[in-house]
């Protein structure tokens, strides 16, 4: 995650299953987003549910989420309660 945040994004080779599993876990919690690189070079954003079942057929690019994903107000009330933090 540090490498992704420092560089902005990180390519993952198609066959790197261990890194893909970790990236899937991080995307479930909203720490990164995953784009699957298509055969024509375009990127398709994967939802967490898709990433869990994604194959090793295509490479991925994991990226730091945009600020709209990191704002507390973007979470539904029930999720906000789960991830609430004390503000100083």
From TrEMBL:
Taxonomic superkingdom: Bacteria
Protein name listed in UniProt: Uncharacterized protein
Annotated source species: Microvirga subterranea
């Amino acid at each position: 995650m540090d490498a992704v945040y420092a560089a902005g994004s990180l390519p993952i080779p198609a066959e790197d299953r261990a890194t893909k599993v970790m990236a899937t876990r991080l995307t479930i919690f909203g720490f990164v987003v995953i784009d699957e690189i298509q055969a024509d070079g375009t990127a398709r954003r994967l939802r967490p549910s898709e990433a869990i079942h994604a194959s090793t057929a295509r490479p991925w690019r994991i990226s730091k989420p945009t600020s709209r994903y990191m704002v507390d107000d973007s979470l539904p009330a029930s999720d906000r309660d789960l991830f609430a933090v004390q503000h100083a």
